[in-house]
Amino acid sequence: MRWHKNLLIGLVAIAALAATSAVAIAASGPSTTKQTRGGIETVRLGLTPSSPQLAACMPNARVNVAVRLTTDRIGYDLFTITARHLPPNRDYTVFLLEQAGSPFGAAEYIGDVHTNAYGYGRNTFGLIVEEAFSSTIVNGARVRVDLNRVGMWFADPADDDFCLGAGSPVTPFDGDNEAGVQAFNSANAAPLPAP
């Protein structure tokens, strides 16, 4: 009987430790990681909802980015974005940004991702990511601005109405100059590429 009691105490301790670790990981938020496989580095990061209101409306949403740093080999990097549990049948625009949140600074429109009837979407873009930058004038001097953050917008201004209501802001983050609000960004992850 005694070994049953000790086994039960040990299992309870392991479960408590696992729960504590899971809470600590969840509290830390998405991270940016870099790994090397086959001589190619890949940076991975998670995007999070851009506001508490959007997070409450999309509690199970997951948006992950994987960037294969292949510019030196093939002339561009491979940026793959995968989304799960998002509002279905919507288009989203994806940008590299100077700052993850407003006022964003310099921005580069890199592509779109569409969610299917189940809220799943995926796309891969071939572009320079590791050394992405914008050149601009600040106080009369030309300045290089790194574009090492990621943002994703509802492509249609009405697509965020399910959460924000019919009067939600119209933003210019689409090719036709009319988009909804920023849905997700990399504010809680390290800048690209990971250190």
Keyword list:
4 helices, single chain, alpha+beta, globular, two-stranded antiparallel sheet, nine-stranded antiparallel beta sheet
Shape: globular
* CATH class value of the largest domain: Mainly Beta
Please report which band the strand proportion falls in: under 5%, 5-15%, 15-25%, 25-35%, 35-45% or over 45%.
35-45%
Radius of gyration: 20 Å
| Contiguous runs where pLDDT drops below 50 for at least 5 residues | 3-29
- Number of helix segments? 4
Question: Might you state the CATH topology name of the largest domain?
Answer: Immunoglobulin-like
Structure characterization notes:
By secondary structure, this protein is of the alpha+beta class. The protein folds into two domains: 1-28; 31-185, Immunoglobulin-like. 21% of the residues lie in helices and 38% in strands. The strands form two sheets. Strands 1, 2, 3, 4, 5, 6, 7, 10 and 11 form a nine-stranded antiparallel sheet that branches. A two-stranded antiparallel ribbon has the order 8-9. Strand 8 and strand 9 (141-146) form a beta hairpin. Residues 3-29 have low confidence and may be disordered.
